[in-house]
Q: What sequence folds into this?
């Protein structure tokens, strides 16, 4: 017998996480919770797992403050890390970090290492890796050397006031952020990236802000951020240095950290001093750059204020994970002294950036490291001497399960029929459209008018559900198999929300949508 009530489609996660407190403004496609999940495959899925890269933690379990995937000749892959024990390590590929490139450095949890690739000024020259730490002279690794050394000829200003950031732009390795002149960018000779003997530099609006905290090379110009306010653009496209132009992009927002911005395709995403995320785009029709608030799209500001330690924003590190089209920002949660969460912005659809959060790891540092297929994969260093390969296929955190949780809005179903908004509804069935992942359950809490009424268990294995006179079983849709899983429900009310989760080791799920079977109060039940 066919069901005689109504069926509402609840599409989960299409618009990502929202932080708004106004229930009336939440879209049916947004989420109230999105922890340790991902939007890949156009479904709601638990995010990839994590495995240890170094089997044994670095001696003394220091914080891993930064890392870099270094391949100086296209055939010799090394992992370089900087730790709070004052050492720079090199790994030969076995995860042992057996080579100490440098010892005796001053490295604390406030030092954010910035790695810049340079050298190769002429065909016969080695490639070099420059490491900026802010409390030490810039370190330089020649090719696959066994030690780093101080940069050969730094600017005089860097003799005891060391730069906090660097970047490669137009054939030069630039630097800045030194405390004695924090509004200045320095650049070397094009023929030698270690030679600043000409003392060439640019003063960037020195009367504004506290100083430059970071800069990037973007679309042929330099974009730099000051704290707490100020974004500036240096146009170096003219071959004559005297014709370079410095302009202000914004004097109302600024940056927060040397690693607080990352380039994502044709845009830059950065975090400001209030914890808000912004995007800088190349506005071709106007011939300049434009800014746009990403946080405002999903009203994320209340969420950031409540869940993160804004006093630790200067420790933020970010990276663009190209393989998944995601910008990852390592941030300290409320009460944490080092980054304990990743705030992730999915831009697989550039017109609809989607936020989510991962609270599983302790990502003190973030970088990308090529896997065996040559794909740069997300990597992190934690607060106990461990380097982690993230987004692994197995949904396991070093052999331990972790929870992936999401929650839909409290829906009154007025989105399908405005007359339903104020009506009480009787809820009969819940059906999930899923991609089969294994013989375990996805738990779904049913929340009616703010109270949890029951928890339904949906097996994520490969068996179908009988519906009426026919059966939905394994079928193909969009390149993957789908199943329909249906459970009876109890309860009635005006609003309903669903909270899905599981936490077992290697347990995954992939949910496309929910189908809610209901009747306005007073109607007879169907089947």
A:
């Amino acid at each position: 017998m066919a069901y005689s009530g109504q069926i509402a489609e609840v599409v989960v996660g299409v618009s990502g996480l929202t932080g708004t407190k106004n229930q009336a403004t939440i879209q049916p496609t947004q989420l109230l919770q999105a922890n340790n999940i991902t939007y890949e495959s156009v479904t709601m899925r638990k995010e990839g797992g994590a495995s240890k890269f170094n089997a044994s933690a670095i001696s003394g379990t220091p914080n891993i403050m930064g890392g870099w995937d270094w391949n100086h000749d296209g055939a010799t892959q090394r992992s370089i890390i900087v730790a709070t024990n004052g050492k720079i390590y090199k790994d030969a590929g076995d995860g042992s970090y057996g080579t100490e490139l440098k010892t005796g450095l001053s490295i604390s949890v406030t030092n954010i290492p910035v790695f810049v690739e340079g050298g190769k000024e002429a065909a016969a020259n080695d490639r070099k890796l420059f490491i900026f730490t802010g409390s030490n002279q810039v370190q330089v690794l020649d090719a696959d050397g066994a030690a780093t050394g101080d940069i050969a000829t730094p600017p005089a200003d860097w003799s005891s006031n060391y730069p906090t950031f660097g970047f490669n732009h137009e054939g030069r390795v630039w630097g800045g952020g030194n405390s004695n002149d924090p509004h200045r960018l320095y650049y070397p000779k094009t023929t030698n990236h270690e030679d600043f003997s000409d003392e060439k530099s640019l003063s960037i609006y020195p009367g504004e802000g506290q100083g430059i905290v970071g800069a990037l090379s973007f679309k042929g110009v330099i974009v730099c951020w000051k704290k707490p306010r100020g974004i500036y653009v240096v146009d170096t496209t003219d071959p004559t240095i005297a014709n370079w132009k410095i302009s202000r992009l914004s004097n109302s927002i600024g940056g927060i950290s040397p690693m607080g911005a990352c380039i994502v395709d044709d845009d830059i995403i950065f975090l400001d001093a209030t914890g808000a995320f912004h995007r800088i785009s190349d506005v071709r029709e106007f011939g300049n750059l434009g800014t746009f608030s990403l946080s405002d799209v999903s009203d994320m500001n209340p969420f950031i204020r409540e869940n993160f330690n804004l006093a630790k924003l200067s420790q933020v590190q970010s990276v663009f994970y190209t393989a998944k089209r995601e910008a990852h920002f390592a941030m300290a949660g409320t009460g944490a002294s080092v980054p304990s969460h990743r705030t992730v912005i999915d831009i697989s659809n550039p017109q609809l950036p989607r936020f989510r959060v991962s609270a599983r790891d302790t990502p003190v540092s973030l970088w990308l490291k090529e896997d065996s297929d040559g794909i740069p994969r997300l990597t992190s260093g934690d607060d106990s001497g461990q380097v982690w390969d993230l987004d692994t296929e197995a949904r396991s955190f070093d052999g331990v399960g972790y929870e992936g949780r999401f929650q839909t809005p409290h829906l009154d179903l007025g989105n399908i029929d405005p007359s339903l908004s104020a009506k009480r509804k009787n809820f009969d069935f819940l059906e999930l459209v899923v991609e089969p992942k294994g013989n375990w359950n996805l738990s779904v809490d049913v929340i009616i008018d703010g109270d949890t009424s029951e928890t339904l268990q949906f097996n994520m294995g490969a068996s179908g559900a009988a519906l009426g006179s026919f059966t939905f079983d394994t079928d193909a849709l969009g390149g993957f198999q789908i199943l329909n899983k249906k459970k009876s429900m109890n309860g009635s009310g005006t609003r309903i929300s669903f909270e899905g989760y599981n936490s077992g080791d290697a347990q995954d799920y992939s949910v496309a949508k929910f189908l809610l079977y209901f009747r306005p109060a007073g109607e007879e039940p169907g089947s």
